[in-house]
Write a sequence for this structure.
């Protein structure tokens, strides 16, 4: 069974194993001497850095490199399997936080390594190397929302974060913060690497994952997050996550 505690991770804290986080429970900014893999079997885990936020719904695995400052927050009761990755294996994995899809082999390896049974060191080492090799073959599924540095851009994204369902156009938001639509559009592309529409869709999808995890219907979630109708929400959700909101919610309920 997973442990339940308020996690305060830093440095070389012995945290490998299974943990259960309550809804809304957070872990303040910290860093690790080793790399870290976190597999959520239920709930949703957000990893936040100065660069932005990565979201891992249930049945995804989050990667955080060594010495990369980050914090976490759980949405819904979130059961985590946590693995520490020694420095010599880390170069095979990305140099920034990433979220991966999970294969059957990867899931089995994570659960074996974090199940509490004492494994011979050579067996554990071999299994961990297999796990890292498997990750290098899996597609990234990063629900990543980059964080702006420009004050004008940050003012716009703060307005959207406060109300993801906000329907104002970029031009209307620009007039509110004192910047032209053309300038803001250029900043979204140049600084965040995506359009205004793409950034807002990513933000809304992150909020939608929380609502779906809490049991809200697809229609209610779509309207709460700013989509004009469920069809457009379903299309956007499937394009970003590779599954419909209904199938995601069904899998989430099975895991729970």
């Amino acid at each position: 069974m997973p442990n339940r505690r308020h996690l305060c991770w830093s440095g070389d804290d012995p945290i490998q194993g299974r943990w259960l986080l309550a809804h809304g429970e957070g872990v303040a900014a910290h860093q690790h001497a080793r790399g870290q893999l976190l597999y959520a079997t239920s709930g949703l885990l957000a990893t936040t850095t100065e660069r932005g936020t990565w979201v891992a719904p249930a049945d995804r695995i989050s990667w955080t490199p060594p010495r990369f400052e980050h914090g976490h927050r759980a949405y819904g009761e979130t059961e985590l399997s946590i693995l520490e990755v020694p420095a010599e294996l880390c170069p095979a994995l990305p140099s920034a936080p990433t979220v991966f899809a999970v294969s059957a082999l990867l899931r089995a390896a994570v659960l074996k390594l974090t199940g509490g049974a004492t494994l011979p060191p050579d067996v554990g080492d071999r299994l961990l190397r297999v796990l890292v090799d498997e990750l290098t073959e899996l597609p990234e599924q990063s629900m990543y929302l980059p964080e702006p540095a420009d004050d004008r851009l940050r003012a716009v994204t703060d307005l959207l974060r406060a109300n993801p369902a906000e329907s104002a156009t970029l031009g209307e938001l620009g007039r509110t913060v004192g910047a032209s639509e053309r300038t803001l559009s250029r900043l979204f592309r140049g600084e965040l690497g995506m359009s205004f529409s793409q950034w807002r869709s990513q933000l809304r999808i992150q909020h939608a994952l929380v609502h779906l995890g809490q049991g809200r219907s697809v229609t209610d979630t779509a309207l709460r997050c700013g989509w004009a109708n469920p069809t457009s929400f379903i299309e956007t959700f499937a394009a970003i996550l590779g599954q419909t909101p209904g199938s995601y919610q069904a899998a989430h309920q099975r895991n729970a």
Q: What stands out?
A: Residues 31 and 69 are 5 Å apart (CA to CA). Residues 148-255 form a domain with the Arc Repressor Mutant, subunit A fold (CATH 1.10.10.60).
